[in-house]
Amino acid sequence: MTERYVIAIDQGTTSTRCIVFDRRGQLVSLAQQEHKQYYPKPGWVEHDAAEIWRNVERLGPEALRRAGATIDQVAAIGIANQRETTVLWDRATGNPIGHAVVWQDTRTDTMVGRLEGEPGAEGVRHRSALPLATYFSGPRLRWMLDRHPGLRERAERGEVLFGTMETWLIWNLTGGLHVTDVTNASRTMLLDVHTLDWSPESLEFFGIPRAMLPEVRPSIGVFGTATAAFPGVRIGAALGDQQAALFGQTCFAPGEAKCTYGTGSFLLLNTGAELVRSTHGLLSTVAYQIKGEPAAYALEGSIAITGSLVQWFRDQLELIASAPEIETLARTVTDNGGCYIVPAFSGLYAPYWRSEARGVIVGLTSYITKGHLARAVLEASAWQTREVVDAMNADSGLALKTLRVDGGMTADNLLMQFIADVLDVPVVRPLAAETVSLGAAYGAGLAVGYWPDLEGLRRNWHRAAQWLPTMEPARRETEYGNWQRAVSRTFDWIQA
After folding, report:
1. Which helix (H) or strand (E) holds 205?
2. Any idea where the Carbohydrate kinase FGGY N-terminal domain is (predicted)?
């Protein structure tokens, strides 16, 4: 019998990957390509959506070639994508209109501040279960419509289309299918998270024409059949990258949580069929929806800067030559020397949501070496995780027992140990490191019967590493107090 596979398209912030998985959920082959980052102004971040699509066209066949497989051996395609990044394109030509505005971009800061005071803002927050913030797609879309003369009128006629990255890729893969899934739609501020459809009131509040929006579908279920890159293969799933990681970590039960450590870090806790509204600065979001079933929801703590702080340490300060070197450098000292780095480069996300905050380094003395700075860089990721876990425990009424982790930073043993220490719970990394891609593959395979059910997916999960807490409680709380004082120094840096 010929082996069959599932392919995941993992469209991330810095690169796009196509990964071939087998029935055991094991990675068979991978093809990856970075794309250019555009920074036209301070706080602005853009991508070329056409470049990203061209990369997918090249990477798909390359991943199959490396697997020694043919297109007829592919059972389904699943897509995981950077969320909130906003793409506009011309319906007739399929060409992007300007660059995509990336989730990290803060250009809508002034506009969001103005909208917060307008009638209807509270209704938007209630329907979307999100705070008004620069993070989400809706304000970006409003900004783009306002800044391009004639664009709104064309959008009202349905000549200009909006989508996040999965919508853009499905459009190109299928030759014109304009759809999104509930996880990505729930990050726009335009979706009613109870009806799981676009909210007419929220569209009116932001001034968004309904004609430019995609159809909202369940995350897991056949979207359509590809005519490009993977001709004849069904697209079985689309999930925002962090929801895909939750699915890939098989966190299917309420109370199960994972944290993905990448450019930023994102901790999601499955809350089941209940939407838990946060009172501690977290996001309530759709975790996933299997076609024909109710949606599952999650609490999410979004941390803007973790892995990208290591990149900054490497590229801007030039204190290391490669990202893995930061662990070696940090191990040259036994502690941070009293130095703390709070990386509020584009404001603070969960649990603060302070867009005016900016990064600080505090506790500098002549004693501090680059080893102390390296340790402070790593510790910043751990303390930010602690803040989110504390908020999650308070919102959910549950005490986190174990944290499942994934992403590139989990290769740093010093960081993982420090996270276990500051959380005072075991930290566990699975054998399958590519959990974002795996979640997309799992969803696609589930949709077409490649995998029979969720329990079958659970059996694929295996532990690769575990870190147990060793820090003394008194030191933990002292250090946490120092961190919180450092965070307070970032507030109100940008004056309105």
Report:
1. helix 200-206
2. 5-248
